[in-house]
Amino acid sequence: MQKNLKNLIIIEHPLVKRDLTLLRDRRTPSFQFRAILRHLAGLMAYEVTKDLKIEKIDIHTPLEKTFGYKIIEEVILVPILRAGLGMVGGFVEYLPDARVGHIGLYRDEETLKPVDYYFKFPKKLKDSLILVLDPMLATGGSASAAIAFLKNKGARNIRFVSIVASPQGVRTLNKAHPEVRIYTTALDRTLNSKGYILPGLGDAGDRIFGTGD
To answer: Quick check: pTM over 0.85?
Structure first.
């Protein structure tokens, strides 16, 4: 399934697999879905940021002088509205100094192409690690458009973080932005005729905000 897929990192851990199972289950109500998504995003934060730049510093314990480390690389979280908002809390819990930008995109139901409606970012993207967050990497259109916009604003170090991904979405993102790492917890089978991931999670936005039928 991963043939010809590049820069794809699948995060596999028993706690991740447990949370993903609960997110997939259609019986999981919105309030639990939100909490589990936040928790799972926090678990992913460890893997996504394991190579952050750090600096050695001197500190004093209650007993003596020693040394420790501080993170010196700025992180900017960019959720793709609206479902990406559900992942921000988990990352902020472990990266409290991270700044947050927003990209508003929706997928046209007929063309399956992304349509933009909102952009708001912190300044000075060039030297920051940009984490684009969206629970679903489906067709890859929205992800590719969001990353292209960030590049046009000066971003250089960009990573894409999703909960589940389709092979089609990964290939689209690989083709458009071959240097961007893609982090996910599962590479699912395919897309249906409406562009939804199978087996997937359903509509993540609807399940987060309780706006489904």
So the answer is: yes
